[in-house]
Amino acid sequence: TDPDMTLSGSNIYSVSENLLLKWLTINFQRAVPTLAYRLTNFHDDLRNGLAFYSVMVNHWPTLESFYSLLHKPCKLETHYQENAQSVLDMMEALQLPFTISVEDILEPRPRNMLVFVLYLYQTLPQLIPKTSVKFSGILGQTSTKCIELSNPSAKPISYSARLEGSNAFKLQESSVKLEPKSTCNFPVECTPQTSKPITGRLIFSSKREGGAHAATMVFSLDCLTQSHKPIVSVNMESKLYEMNTMPIEVANPFPGDCEFTVTIEQEMVKEVLPEEEAEKAKRNNRPTSRNQNGNKKDKKSAAAAAMLVEDDETAPQYPNAFGVDRRMLRMKLGERALLNAFFLPFELGKHRLTIMLENEKFGLFVYEVIGEALLPTPCSSLKIPCDTQNGPTSKEIPIIYPNLGLDAAKKLFLEKHPLSKVKEQAELIRSAKEMPKEMMYVIESTSSLLTCPASMIIKNLPGKGIKRAMGLDDEEPSGKDTTGGTPQPDADKASNGGGRRSSVASIEKITPKNSEMFVNNKDVAKDAVAGGVTPPNTLVVTLHPKGPGMYPGKIVLKSAVDVRVVDLEFVAT
Q1: Tell me, what's the pLDDT at 528?
Q2: How large is the C-alpha radius of gyration of the chain?
Q3: Measured between alpha carbons, how far is residue 337 from residues 58, 250, 260, 354, 465 in Å?
Q4: Which pLDDT band, with edges at 50, 70 and 90, does 208 fall under?
Q5: Cβ–Cβ under 8 Å, residues 133 and 221
Q6: Higher pLDDT residue, 448 or 307?
Q7: How confident is the model at residue 336 (pLDDT cuts 50, 70, 90)?
Q8: Can you state the angle between helices 110-123 and 50-59, rounded to 10 degrees?
Q9: DSSP 8-class letter at 97
Q10: Tell me, what's the pLDDT at 486?
Q11: How many helices (H) does the chain have, and how many strands (E)?
Q12: In what order do the strands lie in the sheet with 217-225?
């Protein structure tokens, strides 16, 4: 290649001196390209101070603030003086220990300027960060990183340490001394105050304290705030189909007055079993301790659960459980405000609400609410007497077709839930008003002494067909056939293996208020196993008593559409 004539074609300057001029020119063109020109000497071309500004700002970008103080171009002598003073102020900001005055720049001597440029050429590259220290933190929480410093020399080295950039970074010590052939860890703290990227620089400047003089060391500090990680997490709970409201106190974590846009996201929380527990259950080929209620399910139960999953694909979709009452929040510096969270679950389990509050200037922060949907209020509560001398006791429990709790929840959602104002969510609740005519339920018992079928189907039986399907007549039973035929046995004889007659009263009478009275009525609470086919919409529950006493338990019925609970208490004598 052809030689660079700007380096070797001068009869005044050596190649080394031309190299320094070209170095200045390149930095000049990079920093202020609209004002830059080729520098050809060490006196007049450097007098306006722009070349010195350019070379320093390229190595230390935070000096850009001096650009507005410079005169471009210099037309008066005072302009040159002010520019020269800005150059000295920049050197002081960098703590460069080179002695130079305003007069040295205004009345430059080529030899002195050559020495000054050579000093900058050797020193400024030390200000380029050796490495970047990465922080990843949560808003308002302090994290600490340590920088390992070493002294390979035979003399002690002392450094002064300082920070530049964001005030989110802090030092525990402002100086450090390294003994000969030693190392130490220097801690740096970071406490993010905004969710936007944070940068800074850590400078170690060698102190002349009788030991060795070392080069300046610079480390870049970068913090990426994990803005989507919640800074506050709260818990709440509600029974299925019932609404609970919780006021959440929100604090402004940013260093200024803010107007926040409030948005929410929500999802179901999937519980993951610990690896040890899951592996142990796999080895033993049995359910884990978190599902002990299901350890007696047989193949029929598994088949019923599989059918339930299939039904779920065509089941109505319910709206989200959570809502908040504010879309905008204004808070001054350090101020707090209340945000009401509404929780109306249509699905059992844990729900996660993510509340995101975003400000255009400072960024985003997040609050989290974990809501647990508990079993719904029992659709009926039954107290059943039994005799332990007769062994296991079975009873028929009628299950009404409509789920009154679910119906009330749908109405409550449209009237009071904040998401009712969201068109898509309101449409979900309206489209879910019609229940299927037949619903498959998987059945679970909370007591090991209460057994019941693994599944059942509940049908929408029209009109008086409900009573007839359950074996009930509108007329009072008698010992004679009203049509003139053969007399029918009475109810007590029927229950002992004669003609089959219903052992339960009208399904319309079963409510939480009168269910105890219903089951205690000897005319309507007969043994369900005494022969014949179980009537529709009727669940047979069997108690296996261990002796006299009270045997409470819950029967949980789960379908792809809803969940129901029957509260039972057998009183064994």
Answers
A1: 39
A2: 41
A3: 45, 5, 11, 17, 57
A4: confident
A5: yes
A6: 448
A7: very high
A8: 10
A9: -
A10: 37
A11: 13, 24
A12: 131-137, 217-225, 198-207, 157-165, 175-178
Question: Can you say whether the dihedral through the CA atoms of 251, 256, 257, 258 is positive or negative?
Answer: negative
153-170-227 Cα angle (round to 5): 125
Q: CB of 76 within 8 A of CB of 82? A: no
- DSSP symbol at 172: S
Task: Look up residue 85 and give its two tokens.
Answer: 């003073």
Q: Which pair of tokens denotes residue 493?
A: 């004889």
Query: How close are the terminal C-alpha atoms of the chain, in Å?
Result: 110
* 60 SS3 class: coil
**How many Å apart are CA 39 and CA 50, to the nearest integer?**
11
Structure tokens given for 421? 């104002």
**What 3 state SS string does 270-317 have?**
CCCCCHHHHHHHHHHCCCCHHHHHHCCCCHHHHHHHHHHHHHHCCCCC
What does the pLDDT read at residue 276? 57
207 exposed, middle or buried (CB, 10 Å; 0-12, 13-18, 19+)? Answer: middle
Spatial strand order of the sheet with 232-239 comes to: 232-239, 363-374, 349-359, 258-268, 328-331
Give the span between the Cα atoms of 160 and 203, in whole angstroms.
8
Q: Which long-range contacts (CB under 8 A, 24 or more apart) does 253-257 make?
A: 253/139, 253/140, 253/193, 253/365, 254/193, 254/194, 254/333, 254/359, 254/361, 254/362, 254/363, 254/365, 255/193, 255/194, 255/333, 255/362, 256/333, 256/361, 256/362, 257/330, 257/331, 257/332, 257/333
In this model, does residue 512 exceed pLDDT 70? no
Angle at CA of residue 70, ends 67 and 74, nearest 5°: 145
pLDDT of residue 294: 40
